[in-house]
Amino acid sequence: MRPQRIIAPLLPVAISLIVGIVIGHYYHLEAWISLSAMAILTVGALFFFRFPKVQSVLVCIITAVMGFHLIQYPLPDIPIVHRAGERMLDYRAHLLQKYQQNISPDTYEIVAAMTLGNKTALTDQTRDTFNITGASHILAISGLHLGIIYMMVSLLVWGQRWRIVTQILTLVLLWAFAFLVGLSPSVVRAATMLTIYGLLSLGYRQKMSVNVLAFTAIIMLIVHPHALFEVGFQMSYLAVLAILLFYPLFYHLISDKWLMEHRLISWVWGMCMVSVTAQIGVAPLIAFYFHRFSTYFLLSNFIVIPCAYLILLGGLLLLLTSWSLIATALSTVVSVMTVSLSFIASLPYATIEELYPTPLQVVMTYLLIFLSIYFVFRSIYTTFDN
User: Fold this and answer.
1) Helices then strands, each counted (H, E), the chain
2) How far apart (Å, rounded) are the C-alpha atoms in residues 144 and 207?
3) Tens digit of each residue's pLDDT (9 = 90 or more) over 59-69
């Protein structure tokens, strides 16, 4: 058992783009200067085709200059995408009205946020409960929600005989949902990654990797460079990066053979490790932006993740049928989830408040966490292999 490689081919390119965007955010130059620099560097990179390492460095520099340019002179919006987004949001308003007609206000605030991405009905008390327990991520449409929807749609339309057609249909429905909930950075990231996952699954290749994550970041930042400074974008990518890097390391602390023989424990252990590794990725950012750390996040995730499956399925069925039985079941699930989280929030030391790290401290914390975990597990696996 060996740890994953951290350095992926596209990761230096993505980092270069981020560096260029950050520099361009604070320092301004005329467009012709940055465009000329890109043109000169591109010609130079072509001349160094016999020196791959030099050419790779020049590609990273070109990407950094491109990020510097894009943050100051972003690409124009595509009108057809803008119009499609507005129409889907109008349709979402219609679906929200259907929810209001079938479920109580207490249930509506949770279901509207988790299934259609509308958080306007959330009360301050509900937000505080989810924030204190570390379950606020469940209220924002993200990779978890789109992954559940992708799985549901795949089960309905998947067929080995027409794999290409069914996969394309699944991805079209996935992107339709992304437009429906407003194309937030976390939704676009998740939809892009699942699109790559779906396309790679047709060729039976590696579907999720740091390289794929870097590729989605490059695409998103080229189209919308200002997303880099949004909290949702930063937390989304760091959570997924931590899962990709550290989940295999933590999960394989227990023998694969033993986990295969104990399926329930394997599922529980896997869910624990996903929660822990995702928390590693977002904890410093949460401390920086929200000045707190939730100590019972693992317990909260054991409650909200199964509930998320039931709420997404129940919400979809309610929109399709409007059956009172489904509305009752949905209200029950929401009630169980909120009561459980309220109890967790009332426990002693549920949250550590008044954390005010500086940006430099956040960066150094990430470096310390990532490097220490990587090298500790590297030594563990080296010992096992020997």
Assistant:
1) 16, 2
2) 16
3) 999 999 999 99
The pTM for the full model equals 0.86
What are the backbone dihedrals phi and psi of residue 265, each rounded to the nearest 5 degrees, phi first?
-65, -35
The HSE-up count of residue 329 (CA atoms within 13 Å, CB side) is 15
* pLDDT single digits (tens) 120-164: 889 999 999 999 998 888 888 888 888 888 888 777 766 556 777
Q: Give the integer Cα–Cα distance in Å for 190 and 185.
A: 9
Report which of 140, 131, 98 is spatially closest to residue 294, judged by C-alpha positions: 131
Bridge partners of 293? 352
The helix, strand and coil proportions of the chain, stated in percent and rounded to the nearest 5, come to 80, 0, 20
Instruction: Output the six-digit token pair for 295.
Output: 């100590």
> Closest by alpha carbon to 66, among 14, 10, 11, 9?
14
**Those residues with Cβ within 8 angstroms of residue 137's Cβ, 6 or more apart along the chain or in another chain:** 144, 235, 239
* Cα distance between residue 316 and residue 310, in whole Å: 10
Residue 351, helix vs strand vs coil: strand
Distance CA 147, CA 197 (A): 11
Tell me the one-letter amino acid at 123. Answer: T
Does residue 65 contact residue 38 with C-beta atoms inside 8 Å?
yes
3-state secondary structure of 202: coil
| Closest to 120 (Cα-Cα) out of 130, 134, 110 | 110
Distance CA 336, CA 200 (A): 39
DSSP letter for 254, please.
Answer: S
